[in-house]
Amino acid sequence: MEVLLEKSSPTTASLKVMLTREDYQPKVDKTIKDYSKRVNLKGFRPGKVPTHVVNRMYGKSILVDEVNHMLSHAVSDYIRDNKLQIVGDPLPDREKAAAIDWDQQTEFEFVYDLGLATDFEIDFSTIPAVPHYTINADEQELESTLTNLRERFADSSHPEVSEEGDMLYGELKQESSEFSTKTAIPTRQLNAESLSKFVGINKGDSLTFDIQNTFADASAIAHVTGKKKEDVEQLSGEFTFVVEDITRTAPAEVNQEFFDKVLGPGQVENEEQFREKVLEIIKSNYAREAETLLRRDMEQALLNSVSIELPADFLKDWLERSNEGKFSREQIEEQYDDFEKSLKLSLIKNKIAEKHDVKVEYPELLEYTRNMVRGQFGMYGEDDSMKDTIDRIAAGYLADKERDNYSNVFNQVFDSKVLDVIRDQIATDEQTVEVSEFERIARGEDKE
Q1: Cα 55 to Cα 28: distance, rounded to the nearest angstrom
Q2: 360 within 8 A of 410, measured Cβ to Cβ
Q3: Residue 26 burial class via C-beta count within 10 angstroms: exposed 0-12, middle 13-18, buried 19 and up
Q4: pLDDT: which is higher, 426 or 401
Q5: Cα–Cα distance between 433 and 439 in angstroms, integer?
Q6: Phi first, then psi: what are they for 439, rounded to 5°?
Q7: Cα torsion 253, 255, 259, 264: sign
Q8: 3-state secondary structure labels for all residues of 399-431
Q9: How does pLDDT run across 9-54, given as a tens digit for each residue?
C-alpha cells in the first residue's frame, strides 16, 4: 500500500491511497475462510461450505468491505502520524470511486481532498489587556430582587369573585369557527378598556368579547388561544369564555418559611441574615456574568491576535456534502463567517489544551451536571435529602446516550478548563460599573 500527499496550496491537498492485490487479498481470503465456517447454505453441512462457493456468492462484497476498512485506517493513520492539521473531513473523489470495476481490477487508487489549517503560534504577551468589570450591586438591586422572589414564591388562593390581577381559568370557544380550548386569561394582559368586564366575575359566569379588541397585544392573544403569534391576525369576531376557576396570588410573606423556600432549610434565621445572603448571591451572579463577558472578550482578543488561514471553498463543500441537503449552499454562505470563527477558536483552544495538558475526568463532569441540576431547580442551597436525588438525576443525565449528553457536558467542561488557562495568561483592565452600564456593555453598546 502506498499513500501520497500532494499539496496544492497552504490550505488544500489531496491524499492518494494505492492498493495492490498483495495488500488486501490475505485479509479477503481470511474473511472468506471465516464465512465458510459460519454461513448456513442449503445442501452443505454447517461449517463445511467450500470457500470457492462463499467466494462466488459473497466475494465481491467482502472485497469492498475489506478495501474500505483498509482505506479508513490508511487515511486516519497517515493524518495522525504526519500530524496534519485537517479541518472538516477528508472528501473522497466520488467520480474516481464510482469508476472502479470491482469484478476486474486488482489494483485500486483512491483520492481524498483534504482541507488544512495553516500553522500558527499563540503569543499571549502581545494581547492587550481585556476589560474585567466589577458590577456595583446596591440596595436598590437587592430590593428589586426581593420583590421578584416574593412574587416567584407567591401564595395563591381561589376566591369566588375576581379582582384585578387575578388569573381566570376556563373554556374559550367560538361556535362559528368551531374553536374551543381550555385556557387561562391573566387579567394583567387585558387592555385598559376591557379590564372592567373581567373584574367582579363569579365562577360559572360566561363572558363574550371581541378577541382582537380585548388584549394588550398579539402575544397575549397567542398565549390565551394557543396560536402562534404570527397566526393571531386570522382570529376575528366574538369569543365566549366560561369561568371555571379563579386564582389569586399575593407576594410571599417575609418569614422563616419564605427564607427556607428560597435558600433551603436552616440557611438563615432572620430577615437580616436573609438579606445579607441574597445580596451575596446577587453579587455572585453578577460576578459570574462579568466573568462570562470577560471570557467572551478574551476569545475575541485571541481571534484578533492569531492568524489562521482556512480553506473556505473546501469547508463550504464539506458542509454541503456532510449535511446531505439539510442546508442549501446559500444558507451555508450566509452562516459561513460564524462557522469559520468558531472553527478558528476551536483550533486555538485545542492547541492551548495540548500545550498545558488540559484533561477532563468523570468526577468533574458529574459535579458540573450537579450544578446544572441545582440551577434548573432554582436551588440556592440544599438539604441532605436532596443530595442523593441530585446525584441520581445528574448521573442519569450523563448516561443518556440518545441526546449525547456526556459529549455535550464534556465539551463544556473542557472549554471551561481551557478558558481558565487563557484567563491566567491574558492581562485584565479592572473597572467598576453600575448594573445598567454593564447591561449596555454586554449588549455590545458603547459605554456612556
Answers
A1: 9
A2: yes
A3: exposed
A4: 426
A5: 10
A6: -60, -40
A7: negative
A8: HCCCCCHHHHHHHHHHHHHHHHHHHHHCCEEEE
A9: 999 999 999 999 999 999 999 999 988 888 877 778 777 788 888 8
- Report the b/e string of 206-223 with b at 16+ CB within 10 A: ebebebeebbeebebbbb
Phi-psi category of residue 334: left, alpha or beta, with phi > 0 → left and psi -120 to 50 → alpha: alpha
DSSP state of 356: T
Question: Per the structure block, which three cell numbers stand in for 226?
Answer: 394557543
- Percentage of residues in the chain with pLDDT exceeding 90? 77
Q: Which residue has the cell 410571599?
A: 252
Tens digit of each residue's pLDDT (9 = 90 or more) over 343-383:
999 999 999 999 999 999 999 999 999 988 887 765 545 55
Closest C-alpha among 426, 398, 396 to residue 411: 398
The whole-angstrom separation of Cα 139 and Cα 141 is 5
Q: What is the pLDDT of residues 226-242, one digit of tens each?
A: 999 999 999 999 999 99
Would you give the DSSP letter of residue 46? Answer: T
The grid coordinates of residue 126 equal 502581545
Does residue 302 come out as left (phi exceeding 0), alpha (psi in the -120 to 50 range) or beta? Answer: alpha
CA distance 137 to 233: 43
Local structure of 328: helix, strand or coil:
coil
Distance CA 265, CA 49 (A): 74
Q: How far apart are CA 377 and CA 208, in angstroms?
A: 39
Please report where in the chains the cell 500553522 appears, as a residue: 119
Residue from 97, 129, 127, 124 nearest 112 by CA = 97
What one-character DSSP code corresponds to residue 215? B
- In the chain the domains, ranked by start, together with CATH numbers, are 2-116 (3.30.70.1050), 124-143+258-442 (no CATH), 155-250 (3.10.50)
Residue from 432, 125, 438 nearest 301 by CA: 125
